[in-house]
Amino acid sequence: MIRIFASSVMLLAAAATPLLAEEHVVTQKGQKFTPATLNVKVGDEVVFVNDDTGTHNVFSESPVNNFDLKAQRPGTRTKVTFPMAGSVEVRCAIHPSMHLTVSVR
Ligand SMILES: [Cu+2]
Question: With contact defined as beta carbons under 8 Å apart, do 58 and 48 qualify?
Fold first, then answer.
């Protein structure tokens, strides 16, 4: 009886724990995203680091993950969660040449 109860509790604990979310880092340096393509899992987080001397404005208009980090000063780190599967095109509003594709699976 006690053994059955214990295993039920363990099953509940396992069900309540989300799949391990991973953290990825994308740097902005020399007005480029590094890496320029990234594969992540649903629920993973990407930390956008501004390693440049000027301000960036990372954003995405992708229906899969629509976000705008607004003005991000040099030295700033900002975390974005990717909750849905699909391809997310990420750009910088200040530097149109900056481009990153995040594939979420
Ligand atoms: Cu920029």
Answer: yes
Q: Is residue 7 part of a domain?
A: no
Tell me the pTM.
0.81
What is the residue range of 75's domain?
Answer: 21-104
- 15-53, pLDDT tens digit by residue? 544 568 999 999 999 999 999 999 999 999 999 999 999
- How close is the Cα of 101 to the center of ligand 1, in Å? 15
Q: In the chain, what's the furthest Cα-to-Cα distance? A: 65
C-alpha of residue 43 to centroid of ligand 1, in Å: 25
What separation in Å is there between the alpha carbon of 56 and the centre of ligand 1? 4
In the chain, alpha helices (H)? 2-16
In a domain, residue 39? The reply is yes
65 CA from centroid of ligand 1 (Å): 19
